[in-house]
Amino acid sequence: MSLSLKSILVPTDFSEHASDSILYAIELAQKFGSSLTFLHVLQDAVALFPEPGVAFPASGTYLQGLQDAAETGLTRLRESIPEGIPVTTEIRNGVPFVEIIRFAKEKPYDLIVIATHGRSGLAHVLLGSVAEKVVRKAPCPVLTVRPAGHEFSMP
Fold it and tell me: The pTM is what?
């Protein structure tokens, strides 16, 4: 069996943990000549945790601010990728694990590289794990990168 990684999907929330997964994705892209697609999913926190008595969606200014911040983050990310690696970016709206899986099914990705936040116990139960749900439902292999994981070193 020959391993071919032509296209790698890298979901990101711009956290420090996501930065670790991006390093792995870059290394794999360089080794296999892969393209990278960075995906950020906008999840409206106001819709998730509305204030009591508030029965209207977030203002357009708030949502536009989220969109602008995501575009800025993806632009910076794209600029940080070494020359020679084809990069595309995408922003989706919705529940992160649902949108990641939906996006991965739209194109034939060979691998998803996603960070875990390393939560356990009550935090894991309450917040769930996007990475865990992606692993279970993804249409392709998934590489999860734990916080403070193995760093690449040149031989």
Answer: 0.81
CA atoms within 13 A on the CB side of 153: 4
* Parallel/antiparallel/unpaired status of strands 35-42 and 7-11: parallel
What tens-digit pLDDT sequence spans the chain (155 residues)? 678 899 999 999 988 878 889 999 999 999 999 999 999 999 855 555 555 555 555 566 877 888 889 999 999 999 999 999 999 999 999 989 999 999 999 988 999 999 887 555 444 444 458 888 999 999 999 999 887 655 655 55
Beta bridge partners, 94, equal none
Which of 95, 93, 149, 142 lies closest to 117, judged by CA?
A: 149
Please give the sequence-ordered ranges of beta strands (E in DSSP) within the chain, or none if there are none. Answer: 7-11, 35-42, 87-93, 111-115, 142-145
Who contacts 142 (Cβ-Cβ below 8 Å, separation ≥6)?
111, 112, 113, 114, 131, 134, 135
CA dihedral sign of residues 66, 67, 72, 78: positive
Scanning 33-120, the segments in alpha helix (DSSP H) are 45-48, 60-80, 96-106
